[in-house]
Amino acid sequence: MAERFCRCHLPLDPPQEQHWWPTDEPEPDTTVHAVAMAGSHPWFLRSERREDGWHTAGCGAAHPDSTPARGWGDVGSCWAGIHHAVVDVSAWLSAARAPNQTARRPTDPWTGLPGVGLTVPVIVRRPNDRARH
After folding, report:
1. For 72-119, what is each residue's pLDDT tens digit?
2. In this structure, are residues 86 and 37 in contact, taking their beta carbons and an 8 Å threshold?
3. Are 54 and 67 in contact (CB under 8 A)?
4. 55 vs 63, more confident
5. Portion of the chain with pLDDT greater than 70, in percent
6. How far apart are CA 38 and CA 125, in angstroms?
7. Which of 7, 72, 101, 118 could form a disulfide linkage to 27, CB 3.0–4.6 angstroms apart?
8. pTM of the predicted protein model
9. What is the CA radius of gyration of the chain?
10. Average pLDDT over residues 39-45
């Protein structure tokens, strides 16, 4: 059977590993400190458990310092409004926050620097620019 994907490019089918469907299942026990949508790298986007709820974190999070906490039922929702399964990424988060662990952090594909946010080259076109062949 072919794997199905959402418009956000994450898989719609459940992963093989331990997972939860936040809209249908209760919160995992307190040993789970962070979750990421199945198929998404936690460096880019994850939800971290804090005293007041689940906070979005990662380099793909929009304004993580000023965004209020969400309830468990909202954790697995993507930008397309689809509910995805989430997986435990607590071990990854602990390793990423440990001192001298830059080798475990992703490398920026453009600069080659470890642990740096994703940089993307931008091509700016002005309205009067015409394609030159």
Report:
1. 999 999 999 999 999 999 998 988 887 765 545 566 555 555 554 444
2. yes
3. no
4. 55
5. 73
6. 36
7. 72
8. 0.71
9. 18
10. 92
pLDDT at 99: 74
For the ranges 8-22, 30-44, 69-83, 107-121, the lowest mean pLDDT is seen at 107-121
What is the DSSP track for 85-131? Answer: -EEE-HHHHHHHHSTT-GGGSPBPTTT--BTPPP--------TT---
Say if residues 35 and 91 touch (Cβ distance below 8 Å): no
Nearest to 85 by CA among 3, 4, 2, 25: 25
Give the integer Cα–Cα distance in Å for 58 and 1: 32
Closest CA to 120 of 60, 66, 36, 63: 60
Structure-token match 């397309």, residue found: 80
In angstroms, the CA 60 to CA 120 distance is 13
Query: Which tokens is 112 given?
Result: 């080659």
Structural domain spans, the chain:
1-104
**3-state SS assignment for residue 70:** strand
